[in-house]
Design a protein that fits this description.
This protein has twelve helices and 15 strands. The strands form two sheets. It has an eight-stranded mixed β-sheet with strand order 3-2-1-4-5-6-14-15, with helices on both faces. A seven-stranded mixed β-sheet has the order 9-8-7-10-11-13-12, with helices on both faces. The protein has two domains: about 190 residues, NAD(P)-binding Rossmann-like Domain (Rossmann fold), CATH 3.40.50; about 170 residues, 3-Layer(aba) Sandwich (Rossmann fold). The protein is of the alpha/beta class.
Length: about 375
């Protein structure tokens, strides 16, 4: 199979879908890999490194002549015309928050497999987990920065100092994002609370952190009380493939502390704050009702080298299986890749995406 890896063109996106080591894996299995010129530069990989392991370096048009496209971020409108009918696309998609992209994939009958919906036998999301871990950790770093007065924050040091109160950090969601955010926030000395609907998960948090984190069952009255005392709120809510639930409402903002910081890690799935709108690394924040909003849609792109290595460690083994056998054959025998299938032959094959736009859902097992 011919595999193409284009350069990411989303604003300040420095990650790349394949490292030279990954290319070597595909070539070893008999595949041809075409890398776009400069695709790996942002992550510290030179074209010459790709060429040494057997890749061809070409322009974007040539890359998109490939049978299978491997990316990091979802295609944006400037790239739509490069795609052709019946191509296989293997990348993050977040379709429930992007109707235009969904319709493009349907119109061109793209066989799209989304990293974020691939579910393994342990009921975990193997290709989403590494980026969730990075985003959770970054969320605290960014919150600490934007709490600084020069950025419009409260002028608070996250961990305080002896005799001075610590920052109060509230984390929504006790999943991968939440646990990683909690680890960093605690490590920096903050006073941390975490909220979830799952009592078993909260019990796990209690044990994992030796009861040093306050745990709460999500309820509207509880959230309202927590928001009033919070210096930082981090949203890490996830419903795989679906739009995120809005847990922080616009009406909550006037009741929050002036200069509080909210970080919406769920922004790729529409955001879990009602007041969220996508920002970029060029302009990462905006202030609404005196609350600093950080809603960058590709947070891990800021640490591109780490993110690329972590992501491709997870995606490449599945990608090689996909390239070896093709979408139809591999989805019949590998349920993880089957759960990643979002569109096929002009039909939506992931229920949450179909529900987001009121479109018909097609069971992939009956199509393939």
């Amino acid at each position: 199979m011919i595999i193409g890896c284009p350069k990411e063109i989303k604003t300040r996106e420095y990650r790349v879908g394949l490292t030279p080591a990954n290319v070597q894996d595909y070539v070893a299995h008999g595949h041809k890999v075409i890398m776009e010129t400069g695709a790996g530069i942002g992550s510290g990989f030179l074209d010459s490194e790709y060429e040494k392991v057997g890749a061809t370096i070409a322009d974007k048009k040539k890359v998109f002549e490939a049978d299978m496209i491997i990316k990091v971020k979802e295609p944006i409108e400037a790239e739509y015309d490069y795609y052709r009918e019946n191509q296989t696309l293997y990348t993050y998609l977040h379709l429930a928050a992007d109707e235009k992209l969904t319709k493009m994939l349907l119109s061109k009958k793209i066989k799209s497999i989304a990293y974020e919906t691939m579910l393994d036998s342990q009921n975990t999301l193997p290709c989403l987990t590494p980026m969730s871990a990075i985003a959770g950790r970054l969320a605290v770093q960014e919150a600490a920065k934007y709490l600084e007065k020069i950025f419009g924050g409260r002028g608070i040091l996250l961990g305080g100092v002896p005799g001075v109160p610590k920052a109060n950090v509230v984390i929504l969601g006790a999943g991968v994002v939440g646990i990683n955010a909690a680890q960093i926030a605690m490590g920096m000395g903050a006073d941390v609370s975490i909220v979830d609907v799952n009592l078993a998960r909260l019990s796990y948090i209690d044990q994992m952190f030796d009861m040093r984190i306050k745990t709460y069952v999500s309820a509207r009255s509880t959230l309202e009380a927590l928001y009033k005392e919070a210096d930082v709120v981090i949203g890490g809510i996830l419903i795989p493939g679906a739009k995120a639930t809005k847990l922080l409402r616009k009406a909550d903002l006037p009741n929050m502390k002036k200069g509080a910081v909210i970080v919406d890690v769920a922004i790729d799935q529409g955001g879990c704050f009602e007041s969220s709108k996508v920002t970029t690394h060029e302009e990462p924040i905006y202030i609404l009702d005196d609350v600093v909003h950080y809603c960058v849609g590709n947070m891990p792109g800021a640490v591109a080298r780490t993110s690329t290595l972590a992501l491709t460690n997870a995606t490449t083994p599945y990608g090689v299986l996909l390239a070896n056998k093709g979408v139809e054959a591999i989805c019949k025998e590998n349920n993880t890749l089957l759960t990643g299938l979002n569109t096929y032959d002009g039909k939506i094959t992931f229920k949450a995406v179909a529900e987001a736009f009121g479109l018909e859902y097609a069971d992939p097992k009956t199509l393939i």
